[in-house]
What we know:
Elements: E1 5-9, H1 16-26, E2 30-32, E3 35-37, E4 51-53, H2 56-64, E5 68-75, E6 78-83, H3 84-92, E7 96-101, H4 103-113, E8 117-123, H5 127-137, H6 142-159, E9 165-168, H7 172-188
Parallel strand pairs: 1-7, 1-8, 2-7, 3-4, 8-9
Antiparallel strand pairs: 3-6, 5-6
Helix pairs in contact: 5-6
Amino acid sequence: MGNKVIIFSAPSGAGKSTVVGHLLGLHPEFEFSVSATSRQPRGAERDGVEYYFIEAEKFRSLIADDAFVEYEEVYKDRFYGTLKSEVERIWNAGHVIIFDVDVKGGYNLKKYFGDKALSILILPPSMEVLESRLRGRGTDTEEAIAERLSKAQWEIDFAHGRFDCELVNDVLEQTFRESERIVDEFLSK
Ligand code: ADP
Ligand code: 5GP
């Protein structure tokens, strides 16, 4: 199984967390990669579980030390990234790393890991469906929904053709079956 990586990316609301959660439930050998961020914890988020929470200054010094596989400064002083130490930790445990990141992060991770990685782009059937899923999820304000939708078209245009495969998440059960098939094929190689 040695040193494999599965990357899921999508515009927010397309269903990547749902699909990743499903696959984690099926595969005990999969382990979710915990990103580092310099943003403050929200609600009940715990350090080392949802994220490793790191001060911006410390984040910068880790960048200078080449400690990241990839990172992004999404807003000023608000960094997100994957630590090389996290990758080593999961591989040393003999597990397959599973990533749930935005399209830019996913593209950069695939470039870094090459043939060790399978990158899957999850797409909504339409922008109207994406909007209704974001509303239905009930976790975002109207302002955040509008922001996510305006970013989504750009993300789809950027990502199209840059991933190993693209999955339109229409009927959830079909998406589950198709993602299981793609992942099993990759792991058996
Ligand atoms: P992401 O992680 O890409 O932001 P989520 O997995 O949180 O997206 O999904 C957004 C919302 O859409 C959630 O409420 C989820 O339950 C719902 N959802 C996901 N896939 C489907 C689907 N195929 N059909 C209907 N609802 C879905
Ligand atoms: P949030 O602050 O809502 O948890 O996440 C904001 C954004 O950061 C999301 O789009 C999420 O996918 C992205 N993100 C989370 N972890 C990483 C990471 O390790 N690298 C990159 N590039 N983006 C990430």
